[in-house]
């Protein structure tokens, strides 16, 4: 878990590049940290140092998307990874591959499904719900509600059931009503 030699240091940095390459999604620092720490791949302080160093040498870069700072691997980082990939032990790569298979859908959902609310007036809240796929907004809803509890409940339901809600909305909007 802790890098004591230059070989371990290189392996950890390459593992971080490998994760960003394999997941093929922009990740927040929190998402990277959760992946790494949650699976005992390295410790927090070393991870933050590696992120900073990889950013400094332009192997990864930060992009701003929807007011979030996200990390992606650069072409330079991909070339370096490709050249030195054999320095990552097979077991580590397999562990990372399994981890990504297990977590990728949750990460995609967390970056593509958005729900938040803002106070509009004294007892008035605007709930903003959206789903974005490949940088295209699939659905966006603004709902005016009477209180913060309703707003929180709507956001929670959207985060947990956006696919079903979206499907229901589409079905309702495309349903040919016999009363018309």
From TrEMBL:
This is Uncharacterized protein DUF4364. The lineage of its organism: Bacteria, Bacillati, Bacillota, Clostridia, Peptostreptococcales. It holds the Pfam family DUF4364. It comes from the Bacteria. It comes from Serpentinicella alkaliphila. InterPro entries: DUF4364, WH-like_DNA-bd_sf. Gene3D superfamilies: Winged helix-like DNA-binding domain superfamily/Winged helix DNA-binding domain.
């Amino acid at each position: 878990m802790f890098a004591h030699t230059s070989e371990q240091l290189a392996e950890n940095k390459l593992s971080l590049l490998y994760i960003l390459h394999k997941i093929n999604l922009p990740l927040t620092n929190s998402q990277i940290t959760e992946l790494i720490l949650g699976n005992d791949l390295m410790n927090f302080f070393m991870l933050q140092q590696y992120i900073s160093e990889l950013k400094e040498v332009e192997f990864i870069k930060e992009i701003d998307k929807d007011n979030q700072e996200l990390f992606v691997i650069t072409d330079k980082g991909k070339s370096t990874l490709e050249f030195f990939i054999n320095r990552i032990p097979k077991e580590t790569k397999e562990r990372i591959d399994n981890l990504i298979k297990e977590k990728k859908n949750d990460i995609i959902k967390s970056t593509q499904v958005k729900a938040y609310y803002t106070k509009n007036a004294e007892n008035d809240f605007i709930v903003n719900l959206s789903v974005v796929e490949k940088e295209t907004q699939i659905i966006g809803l603004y709902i005016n509600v009477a209180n913060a509890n309703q707003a929180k409940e709507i956001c929670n339901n959207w985060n947990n059931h956006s696919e079903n809600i979206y499907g229901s909305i589409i079905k309702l909007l495309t349903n040919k009503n016999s009363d018309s």
